Amino acid sequence: MTAETRPSVCPHDCPSACALEVEVLPGDRIGRVHGAAMPYVDGVICAKVARYAERVHHPDRVLHPLRRVGAKGEGRFERITWGEALDEIAARFKDAAERLGPETVWPYFYAGTMGHVQQSGINRLRRVMGYSGQLKTICASAAGAGWAGGVGSKWGVPPQEIAQSGLVVVWGANPAATQVQLMGLIKQAKTANGAKLVVVDPYRTATADKADLHLMLRPGTDGALASAVMHVLFRDDLADRDYLARYTDCPERLERHLESRTPAWAAAITGLTEAEIEAFAKLYGGVPNSFLRVGYGFSRSRNGAANLHAVSCLPAVTGAWKHKGGGAMQSTSGVFDLARTLLDGLDVPQRPVRSLDMSRIGPILTGDVGKGPPVTAMLMQNTNPAVVAPDSGLVRQGLARDDLFLCVHEQVMTETARFADMVLPATTSMEHSDLYTSYGHTFLQVAKPVIAPQGESRSNHRVICDLAARLGAVHPGFEMDEWEMMDQVLDASDLPKAAEIHAMGWLNCGKVFDDAHFLSGFGHPDGRFRFAPEWGAEGLPELPDHFDVIENADAAHPFRLITPPSRHFLNSTFTETPTSLAQAKEPTALIHAEDCAALGLESGGMVRIGNAKGSVLVRVAATSGIARGVVVVESIWPDRHFAEGLGINHLTSADAALPAGGAVFHDTKVWLKAMLPADDDENGA
Ligand SMILES: Nc1nc2c(c(=O)[nH]1)N[C@H]1C(S)=C(S)[C@@H](COP(=O)(O)OP(=O)(O)OC[C@H]3O[C@@H](n4cnc5c(=O)[nH]c(N)nc54)[C@H](O)[C@@H]3O)O[C@H]1N2
Ligand SMILES: Nc1nc2c(c(=O)[nH]1)N[C@H]1C(S)=C(S)[C@@H](COP(=O)(O)OP(=O)(O)OC[C@H]3O[C@@H](n4cnc5c(=O)[nH]c(N)nc54)[C@H](O)[C@@H]3O)O[C@H]1N2
Ligand SMILES: [Mo]
């Protein structure tokens, strides 16, 4: 069998946005998928996408429009035609809007595809129709606010510079699982420059396993660690005072404020030793071109934005930004600067419309809706909130409401789709066209379909245009195909045509050195990095500090739970593919061996993890590679894979992080109990 190879782009919500080479087999099936030669990717992709055929040709692909025949959530459906489906959805949306006003309709979407055309149509439709808006908080709000507070621009030093750096610090990220190419760059820095790797993470991830120094702090205490590191930098004259005077807002005030933020102070908060904090500070202060990769993990706490800001202050104190291979990166998404008017329908005149916080879908669907009507009609694309959103108990209660009309456009039968009244089949990125940017590198890409749509599946763009026609929504974006749309967006952004970018393979939109390193100024009007951010909300610390608003462990809940992504899944995507499932095995709690001994827990046994919201039963793995008092359950398994059918987000809170929202997945106090699956007392505490 000979395979032809066609170019594509990985559409998933991952910093790497990989350029792909897809083998296409006779019969219009995809075979192996390889990494393309694009710099950064350099031929390397994750194992999940290498076997993408498992997903595209999965027996559980939704291939036809389906209408619910069973009870809500039961997952029993009948096949209907596209015409019937679209007519019924339009009728239900119109009816709901007539009864309660357009805000009763909540189009709900996220980044299951990162393609701009396929992702944005639903938002354009809701603007034209005056439906409820959405605060897109589930991933990057806290991190974004923290970074914006100090740096001000949504980019940093491109990751390829890691290869030239003298010290790499990975803070609250696990690239070995979440962006594999970074590990290759770190290896190059080690080999070429003798660079050391420091990892700041509450447990020994696959990334931390490669570290020269692993700081295993308590979750939610990064602001304390960063403050003490800066204390040492000032105390030991490792701060670059010329740089500080030229590029930052209030270095003297910061230095005075940090006088009491000693390593001893931080040791008590973080659980690290003073010696560890001193050693890290001296290492960091001793290398001019240190590269700080600031992750998302530690932003998923009530104090996440403040902590991320505190950490982002480090290179401004040492002046690492001045050097090739030095500085920091959190996201690169700001380098692209796409003209979004056509995509999002920003030209549509707006009546004041409420925006609902997507991370609070549970409380909102169960009554906590604020001003305006209850939500009674939803269209969902590119997200699986029954599994990924916090406080799953409330989310499921809401999705199961009889007075909610729920339409889910999906590729596979997710646990969310099972709650739907109508399920529509979606094409995958292998079957539609789109334009991709990235939040982990600076390359713009365009993809064409490599195979025909599976079954009767249709792209998001097509479904939104068809619905717009039935709803009477008028906008030029609903009259174009994907290529016309891409060309108009690119043209308005002063970029080449889509076909040209596709032919080139990728287009580097990276900044020149002085801009990428902010030597021409940070993103605030005065061009200075801000140690004292303008938070735009009350109550946050004025300067880097420990911001004690987290759920601290207490006598009734002596542990803190963190729920980071699994290497084998991509959020809840790939939880349907057989190889990923086999490799991830089953939901497992990592707990310190001494904590296990104290609680009578044994590796291989079961532990019940609980709080006021309920409890979840998982397998125990004892380890020495975790901070004491911390339990890690790598997620995000669908609920049905847990021993009692309740997944980990049943324990997480829908509270919003300050100042701009953000889900607090790693900020949960819990109790642990050794238990056999049959034992069933004590739900809640
Ligand atoms: N294989 C795989 N890749 C993915 C994803 C996936 O699910 N699977 N998800 C994708 C998405 S949507 C995103 S946003 C990115 C996220 O990728 P990353 O930026 O790597 O962030 P996370 O994976 O959320 O968390 C990383 C680490 O933060 C640690 N952490 C938790 N709390 C704290 C804390 O308080 N302090 C510190 N210092 N560390 C803490 C966790 O233990 C975890 O190891 O990855 C993307 N890539
Ligand atoms: N406990 C815990 N929960 C978390 C996190 C955590 O670390 N811990 N991480 C959070 C983070 S960072 C994020 S970003 C969210 C992510 O949560 P989600 O955005 O819900 O991501 P996925 O679970 O990957 O679900 C995406 C869905 O989109 C579908 N999809 C993909 N492409 C298309 C398309 O072109 N059209 C249509 N119609 N559908 C498509 C896929 O089949 C998949 O079911 O989860 C959050 N939840
Ligand atoms: Mo994310």
TrEMBL record:
SUPFAM superfamilies, alphabetized: ADC-like, Formate dehydrogenase/DMSO reductase, domains 1-3
GO molecular function terms noted in the UniProt entry: iron-sulfur cluster binding; metal ion binding; molybdopterin cofactor binding; oxidoreductase activity
Domain 4Fe-4S Mo/W bis-MGD-type: 3-60
Entry keyword Iron: yes
PANTHER family membership: OXIDOREDUCTASE YYAE-RELATED (PTHR43742:SF6), TRIMETHYLAMINE-N-OXIDE REDUCTASE (PTHR43742)
Entry protein name: Dehydrogenase
Cofactor(s) recorded in Swiss-Prot or TrEMBL: Mo-bis(molybdopterin guanine dinucleotide)
